[in-house]
Amino acid sequence: MSELYKQSGVNLSEANRLANKLVKFGGNFQAFAGELNCRGLKIVNCCDGIGTKIIPLYEKKLFKTIAIDLVAANLNDLATKNAKALGFLDYIAVNSLDSESISKIIFEIKNVLSNFGCELLGGETSEMPDLLKNGVIDICGFVTGIADENSIPSGIQSGDIVIALKSNGIHANGFSLIRKLYADGKLSEEEFLECLKPTFIYYNAVQNLWQNNLIKSAANITGGGIYSNIIRVVPEHLDLDLDFCGIQQQGIYKKLYNLCGDEIYEVFNCGAGFCLIADAADADKIFDICKCFDPFILGKVVEK
After folding, report:
1. How far is the C-alpha of 135 from the C-alpha of 128, rounded, in Å?
2. b vs e for 215-244, b when ≥16 Cβ sit within 10 Å of the residue's Cβ?
């Protein structure tokens, strides 16, 4: 289980143990976004950051990519629910405040959000020299959405298909491992820069699918890999039959497979950045709406 990732400082086994301990709190702790009912509406909330990808992005002053990744981390989680994004907050922690750089990041976040009808409401910037290294920052986003309380999709059943939407490479997961491989000389400068491409934001396309009742569930493929993320949205009495060989391998994943083997499927999206569960009869309509993300059938839902 993810020995190279563990050597880079991330223990997935311990993360899974934590998730198992939190199961007792109910479904919201397993979901990509939590829901609560309020006066006939569903309020949907989620939060996420971009992990240690922030380190090279900030060093290279790739402020627009920081903004895209942060918005993507949150709106892609929100897209797993039939909810409209309303407001966004950011939290930025720094060793020492560089007002020029931080203001550019916030400006870019506001610009990216404008493409999705979501407003930047504010946030918090915290200067903590005793907690963070010099030149390092951390960033997190919080989004609130709203949905009709009665908007409940039809139930997932055996035989439903899993449709994957292509990723833009690594996105913002597994960067402790990526940075270690680069530092050890196992990834070239060109390959490392390829890893820094911004995350695809699937929110608009997936909202279109929800509004047209074309999908039953959805999963944002982030840390933990493909299967572990999709199974979170599948009923306990069902399982998944996935064909990883059906994923069109991007160049960086061919290299990572040579370095890490099957471990990449536990850490990265491997080319499948977002997944949908739907009735097979709706596949053509889904493919048309999501054609800009080169959709493909990754597998199906099966009985345990």
Report:
1. 12
2. bbbbbbbbbbbbbbbbbbbbeeebbbebeb
- 274 φ/ψ angles, rounded to the nearest 5 degrees: -155, 140
DSSP per-residue codes, the chain: --HHHHHTT--HHHHHHHHHHHGGG-GGGTSSSEEEEETTEEEEEEEEE-GGGHHHHHHTT-HHHHHHHHHHHHHHHHTTSS-EEEEEEEEEEESS--HHHHHHHHHHHHHHHGGGT-EEEEEEEEE-TTTS-TT-EEEEEEEEEEEETT--PPPP-TT-EEEEEE--SSTTSSHHHHHHHHHTTSS-HHHHHHHTSPPP--HHHHHHHHHTT--SEEEE--TTHHHHHHGGGS-TTEEEEE-GGGS---HHHHHHHHHHGGGHHHHS-TTEEEEEEE-GGGHHHHHHHTGGG--EEEEEEEE-
Strand-pairing partners, residue 35, are 44
Residue type, 29: F
Residue type, 248: Q
Domains and CATH numbers, the chain: 32-148 (3.30.1330.10), 161-303 (3.90.650.10)
Q: What sign results for the dihedral spanned by CA atoms 57, 248, 277, 229? A: negative
Cβ atoms within 10 Å, residue 60: 11
Q: What confidence tens digit (pLDDT) does each residue in 153-165 have? A: 679 999 999 999 9
**For residues 141 and 88, what is the distance between their CA atoms, to the nearest angstrom?**
7
Mean pLDDT of the chain: 91
In this model, does residue 2 exceed pLDDT 90?
Answer: no
* Amino acid present at 227: Y
| CB contact at 8 A, 198 and 69 | yes
